Automatic annotation (TrEMBL):
Lineage: Bacteria, Bacillati, Actinomycetota, Actinomycetes, Kitasatosporales
Keyword Nucleus: no
Leader peptide range in chain numbering: none
Organism encoding this protein: Streptomyces bugieae
Alphabetical keyword list: Hydrolase
Membership in a protein family: Belongs to the glycosyl hydrolase 13 family.
Protein name: Glycoside hydrolase family 13 protein
Any one Gene Ontology molecular-function term assigned to this protein's record: hydrolase activity
């Protein structure tokens, strides 16, 4: 994957502007798997600080920290016991301040996860609610209900947890509480003014410490129809965004009332100069996602259609057109993502046959079918260069710059994701994309730390490490570095112009022009395609003269 940089070094121009986020590259750090400073096998905030130079050197604009709050790890840190502190296993508030100080010194913005749909069952409010009993003000901060049946022995509704099983757990006093995820994650009642005030305080707490923005977990779940009697919906084990009603009438997903909450948050964000920004994790219909991203609300919403699209030119082009049109309609900016902490890494995903059942593949420990590792990586890098050429913000998950594959063969006894136990073994969960990073070729954890790693790293992990790839022009790491540096010098407005008609797309070619005299071509076929006249700036695989090889993306300067 030879990278070539022919233009001037763009430096760090534009990083500090008020709209830094509109076309930023944001690097997601999963702290427990990034770098371990004290040898206990768990990544921590001092470890993050020690490696920020790696990110600045690669040319990212911002760092997004997945949860680092006190947590019992019922859901990988997304069960938050205290929203305004740091898990002692990961450091202290002083350590967090050191992350922000060093990031800002290096020209990096900092975003943090905020988890407003639910807390940990160890949160002081939920513990108070358990002690206070039915009918108390403390219980009004969560969703408690009596059960059905002569003795309240059945759940209040047929709602199902996203992790499998009922979305209700019964207490010894006979009452039930709602948890759309794990039982250790009770849902807040956002009709309660105390809940709203508490999160305003939390947003200000982190903003006052220098945080530049927030990623909002389960943004579409906060508002719920809690009017009596609660509505059954017909038990379903899972849902897709397009299964949700278009009118916002679902009892707990994507209700219209959620936007009042985020308009309130925007008033908090605008108290700061520059205003804080946020991106919604909202698994909703395209037609309803734009509302989360307006300037009056969060500013951005993740576009998961692009992540889920197959590498077929027509499907990808449709996804791109829809995302750009929706962003324009919202007065927002498009977002692009290929991997994160919840999905199979795209270096493996794109090596699977079309139509492969990914869950079955994981349950078979990645052996049926076998991933074509080099083919998957080639396709993944072509998709990455396409993503980084698109107008808007790109979100990069830690380790994808190393081309890391999914660790599909983690032993069952090592799994930590509650999805594994809650589904009773029907779903292996998300641990395979959370295996700690390799920084060096050798050592007890390939440079992650001095004391092993909380999830087992596979043999050969060290040959994918930063040390192994540093300076190798054919390595994914150097391709990412070249792409991010060149990209920063090329970006202008947020428009693109497609080149070629339906026949080009039917032949597997995505070709568009960006202002400033450069073009991006992605060949998603098995046949080489002609390159336009111009100067090749970067390519995801070696070129063949004036031809673009199969499963390759190239950036070409054609004017100026």
């Amino acid at each position: 994957m030879t990278a070539q940089h022919l233009g001037p070094d763009p430096g760090t121009a534009g990083r500090s502007s008020r709209d830094w986020w509109r076309q930023a590259v944001v690097y997601q750090v999963y702290p427990r798997s990034f770098a371990d400073s004290d040898g206990d096998g768990i990544g921590d905030l001092p470890g993050v600080t020690s490696r920020l130079g790696h990110l600045a050197d690669r040319g990212v604009d911002a760092v997004w920290l997945s949860p680092f709050y006190p947590s019992e790890l019922a859901d990988g840190g997304y069960d938050v016991a205290d929203y305004r502190d740091v898990d002692p296993r990961l450091g202290t508030l002083d350590d967090f301040d050191a992350v922000v100080t060093e990031a800002h010194r290096l020209g990096l913005k900092v975003m943090v996860d905020i988890v407003p749909n639910h807390s940990s069952d160890q949160h002081v409010w939920f513990q108070e609610a358990l002690r206070a009993g039915p009918g108390s003000a403390a219980r009004e901060r969560y969703v408690f209900r009596e059960g059905k049946g002569a003795h309240g022995e059945r759940p209040p509704t047929d709602w199902v947890s996203c992790f499998g099983g009922p979305a209700w757990t019964r207490l010894p006093d006979g009452w039930w509480y709602l948890h759309l995820f794990a039982p250790q994650q009770p849902d807040f009642n956002w009709d309660n003014p105390e809940v709203r005030a508490e999160f305003r305080t939390t947003l200000r707490f982190w903003s006052d410490r220098g945080v530049d923005g927030f990623r909002v977990d389960v943004a579409h779940g906060l508002a719920k129809d809690l009017a009596a009697p609660l509505r059954d919906i017909g038990t379903v084990e899972s849902y897709q965004p397009d299964d949700l009603p278009e009118d916002g009438s679902h009892p707990f997903w994507d209700r219209d009332e959620v936007h009042e909450i985020f308009r309130d948050w925007r008033r908090v964000f605008n108290e700061y100069d520059p205003p804080r920004i946020a991106v919604a994790e909202a698994w909703v219909r395209n037609s309803r996602r734009t509302a989360y991203a307006t300037p009056q609300e969060l500013g951005q919403a993740f576009n998961f259609d692009f992540l889920r699209a197959s590498l077929h030119a027509g499907e990808l082009r449709s996804s791109i057109d829809t995302a750009l049109a929706d962003a324009r309609a919202a007065g927002a900016t498009a977002t692009w993502v290929l991997s994160n902490h919840d999905v199979i890494r795209h270096a493996s995903r794109h090596g699977l046959p079309d139509g492969c059942d990914e869950e079955s593949w994981l349950l078979a420990d990645g052996r049926r079918p076998l991933v074509e590792r080099e083919f998957g990586l080639r396709r993944a890098l072509a998709a990455t260069l396409l993503m980084l050429a698109l107008p808007g913000a790109g979100y990069v998950y830690q380790g994808e710059e190393l081309g890391l594959p999914e660790v599909a063969d983690l032993p069952r006894e090592a799994l930590r994701d509650p999805v594994w136990t809650r589904s009773r073994g029907r779903s292996k969960g998300r641990d395979g994309c959370r295996v700690p990073l390799p920084w060096r070729r050798g050592g007890s954890s390939y440079g992650f730390g001095s004391g092993g790693s909380w999830l087992p790293q596979p043999p050969g992990w060290g040959e994918l490490s930063v040390e192994a790839q540093q300076g190798d022009p054919a390595a994914p790491l150097e391709l990412y570095r070249a792409a991010l540096r060149i990209r920063r010098g090329l970006l202008a407005d947020e428009e693109l112009e497609w080149v070629g008609g339906p026949e080009a797309v039917a032949g597997g070619l995505l070709h568009f022009r960006r202002s400033g005299g450069w073009e991006c071509l992605t060949n998603l076929s098995d046949t080489a395609r002609p390159l336009p006249d111009g100067e090749p700036l970067l390519f995801s695989a070696p070129l063949s003269g004036d031809r673009l090889p199969p499963w390759t993306t190239a950036w070409v300067r054609t004017a100026g």
